[in-house]
């Protein structure tokens, strides 16, 4: 996502007004159908769910719940009109407690048959999903129930996938008390570590790291990745086996001082060909924690304005800087490790 440069501020405001105006006209024009769609539960509609696209769909495991009308849009989400506005393809719905549903284009409930023998058609669907949007696969292969930091996958019907609603975006904690932000920062570094080094020897590299792609559970305060569309899965065992060129040379991602928000520099080819990679630490430090993180007109990152004794000490800033933009060779690996320890210590101190 890019920020609008200040020069365009005025222009974008009038564009917004124009858009709002035409929206009102559209609403008036469509009011009878609007009213009807308000009363009707679209989520029981096979066409809306695109059930006819199956088996080129995400699956059918939740169809009974959808077709029975147990899943309903929340307030504004009920407006059919929001469909074409909903560029993000994320809808909020209720099933007992709040859930989130979203629409994807291709595939099938894949998790259930992933590890079994695949028929040719299933293999095709799996590859298609991988090519189109791997998110539902990532959620099923790395389930939250087994400790992975993703939203819980619930099921699919047609091209609609249901996942658990996590909570508010990380962004809404940007001005939370220092202790809270230290805890969130520590969790983010732990996520970076878990996705890089785990018993499964899969490295999951986060390619879209921003304040709106993480959410925080309201009860447990746990940080969860809510946008797993841009996750690169590297099979480290395979890399060790195939030994591509330079596979065992530690790879250091390059700091990206671009003037947009939340940019990251990476090469998928390299991430898939090296066994030791500092990409996740880089992404979290540069885009979320350090003073280099810019988001929606703010700067300073999640750990902005530390209490004076921590600022005076200087260690935190030095570690964050080295983690975002290392000056020493392999400095980021070391800084990330120390940062995790330091944040753990700080969050214990303040608890
Ligand atoms: N499981 C979820 N729980 C809570 N909020 C969510 C969840 N999934 C998405 N969101 C919210 O919807 C927004 C858009 O979802 P996201 O997957 O990031 O879409 P996009 O691919 O368009 O960026 C997120 O920034 C977040 O605020
Ligand atoms: Mg997103």
From TrEMBL:
The keyword Magnesium does not apply. One of its GO terms (biological process) is regulation of phosphatidylinositol 3-kinase/protein kinase B signal transduction. It comes from the Eukaryota. Belongs to the DIPK family. Its main location: secreted. Residues 128-326 form the FAM69 protein-kinase domain. It is found in: Secreted. It comes from Myotis davidii (David's myotis). Keywords: Secreted, Signal. InterPro entries: DIPK2A/B, FAM69_kinase_dom. Pfam families: PIP49_C. GO terms for cellular component: COPI vesicle coat; extracellular space. This is FAM69 protein-kinase domain-containing protein.
């Amino acid at each position: 996502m890019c920020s609008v440069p200040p020069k365009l501020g005025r222009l974008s405001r009038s564009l917004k007004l124009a858009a709002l105006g035409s929206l009102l006209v559209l609403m008036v024009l469509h009011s009878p159908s609007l009213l009807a769609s308000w009363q009707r539960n679209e989520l029981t509609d096979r066409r809306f769910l695109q059930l006819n696209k199956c088996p080129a769909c995400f699956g059918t495991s939740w169809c009974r719940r959808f077709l029975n009308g147990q899943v309903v849009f929340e307030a504004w989400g009920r407006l059919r009109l929001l469909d074409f506005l909903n560029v993000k393809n994320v809808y909020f719905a209720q099933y007992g407690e709040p859930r989130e549903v979203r629409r994807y284009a291709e595939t099938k409930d894949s998790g259930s048959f992933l590890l079994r023998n695949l028929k040719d058609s299933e293999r095709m669907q799996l590859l298609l999903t991988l090519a189109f949007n791997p998110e539902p696969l990532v959620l099923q292969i790395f389930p939250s129930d087994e400790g992975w930091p993703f939203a819980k996958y619930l099921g699919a019907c047609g091209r609609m996938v249901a996942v658990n609603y996590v909570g508010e975006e990380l962004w809404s904690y940007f001005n939370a008390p220092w202790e809270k932000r230290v805890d969130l920062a520590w969790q983010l570094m732990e996520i970076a570590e878990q996705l890089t080094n785990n018993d499964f020897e899969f490295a999951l590299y986060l390619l879209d790291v921003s304040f709106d792609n993480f959410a925080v559970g309201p009860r447990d305060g746990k940080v969860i990745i809510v946008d797993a569309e841009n996750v690169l899965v590297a099979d480290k065992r395979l890399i060790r086996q195939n030994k591509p060129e330079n596979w065992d040379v530690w790879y250091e991602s390059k700091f990206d001082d671009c003037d947009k928000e939340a940019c990251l520099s990476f090469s998928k080819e390299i991430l898939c060909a090296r066994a030791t990679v500092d990409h996740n630490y880089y992404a979290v430090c540069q885009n979320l924690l350090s003073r280099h993180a810019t988001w929606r007109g703010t700067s300073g990152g999640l750990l902005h304005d530390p209490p004076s004794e921590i600022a005076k000490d200087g260690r935190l800033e030095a570690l964050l800087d080295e983690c975002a933009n290392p000056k020493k060779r392999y400095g980021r690996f070391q800084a990330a490790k120390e940062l995790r320890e330091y944040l753990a210590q700080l969050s214990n101190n303040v608890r």
